[in-house]
Amino acid sequence: MKNIDNGAIAKDKEIINGGEITKVVLAYSGGLDTSVIIPWLKENYQNCQVIAVCGDVGQGDELDIVYEKALKSGAGKCYIVDLKKEFVKDFVWPVIKAGSKYEGKYLLGTSVARPLIAKALVDVAKKEGAQYICHGATGKGNDQVRFEVSIAALSPDTKIIAPWREWDIKSREDAIDYAKDHGIEVPVTKKRPYSMDRNVLHLSHEGGDLENPEKEPIDDLCLICTRPEEAPDQAEYVVIDFEKGQPVAINGQKFDEPLALLEKANEIGAKHGIGILDMVENRLVGMKSRGIYETPGGTLLMEAHQLLESLTLDRDTASFKSHIAIKYAQLLYDGLWYTPLKQALDAFIDSTQETCTGQIKMKLYKGNCIPAGIKSPYSLYSEEIATFGEDDVYDQKDAEGFIHLFSLPLKTNARMRAKSGLEI
């Protein structure tokens, strides 16, 4: 067993505003990293009181043992803050309306939760009079930026402790050894050392054998979604209703609470293997990483929303919004939720959703969302105009003048080049 020197960076002499470090708020999940951080903080920061804060964004039964585990690991207090409803209504829905996917694929399941958790950390720190907030994000990852940028925006004078940038623990295997030395039970083993993040929108898997992009994920990796090979052999139709860009009903069942609707979408999507993504992405800190994401309900809703917009947005607005979606995804991925630009983009996106009301029918089959019908009272589609059959609405001869004017700059350029002896 590797020996970890945990006293190498002791902070016994550190002073904050003329006083000792007495309280540190820790972003706590009950997982490997944050579990070992509690005793490490006490050993290295003047035996400070560790106040564990777990933001419940839909981790499910993972939270059943969190409270007792935090106290058993050495925390003086543990807050479990229910953020699920706020998460879906104020954080997930804006991503759906924006149509944002990082690098065209990732539905931002981890990224979008971090600003809300950071807000909960700041709220508890203010309540407890703690001037330090600690997180367990690795120094190689994106979450360290997301947490710290959000905390800076909400509480600029709060200081940060980031153990992965300080301690002598170099790997998850080291952390497992440290946990065993301190009698802490952890939910990972050296045989299944994945780093996982779960909320009501998604479940991500990183690390372990996934770090080799040549390797296919193990068959039992997915914990939410059915493998497409094992999904039902019979397709299922699902109908989703939207009002002003927000999903409000599934298969005729109205949901007043967004959380309940997303949970229903998760149930349906997971059954058919919808939303399993294996991608190599570009991290904010400059490296590439591979992740496996399970986002069943989010994928279903995102696909349906984009289909509805194909009916309700004009060409120029749809084109410009697609560019906005890319920028919006970049902001969220980089942790820039609490910024003036993000707020301004929200205003633009909301304006495009005024007519995004209607009903989408999808056919789900072995990992695929197949369009099966769209209708909206604000549809810009006209069958009378678009038909290839006979009509009395559109004079096809009008296209001749349009094409002449549309191609005029090209003709002018070609004549100039020919006159000048240049190759056309």
From TrEMBL:
GO terms for molecular function: argininosuccinate synthase activity; ATP binding. L-citrulline binds at residues 106, 111, 142, 146, 195, 204, 281, 293. Its EC number is 6.3.4.5. Pathway: Amino-acid biosynthesis; L-arginine biosynthesis; L-arginine from L-ornithine and carbamoyl phosphate: step 2/3. GO terms for biological process: argininosuccinate metabolic process; L-arginine biosynthetic process; urea cycle. It is found in: Cytoplasm. Residues 194-412 form the Arginosuccinate synthase C-terminal domain. Residues 23-185 form the Arginosuccinate synthase-like N-terminal domain. GO terms for cellular component: cytoplasm. ATP binds at residues 27-35, 136. It catalyses: L-citrulline + L-aspartate + ATP = 2-(N(omega)-L-arginino)succinate + AMP + diphosphate + H(+). Its main location: cytoplasm. InterPro entries: Arginosuc_syn_C, Arginosuc_syn_N, Arginosuc_synth, Arginosuc_synth_CS, Arginosuc_synth_type_1_subfam, AS_cat/multimer_dom_body, Rossmann-like_a/b/a_fold. L-aspartate binds at residues 138, 142-143. Keywords: Amino-acid biosynthesis, Arginine biosynthesis, ATP-binding, Cytoplasm, Ligase, Nucleotide-binding. Belongs to the argininosuccinate synthase family. Type 1 subfamily. NCBIfam families: argG, PRK00509.1. This is Argininosuccinate synthase. It comes from Peptostreptococcus stomatis DSM 17678.
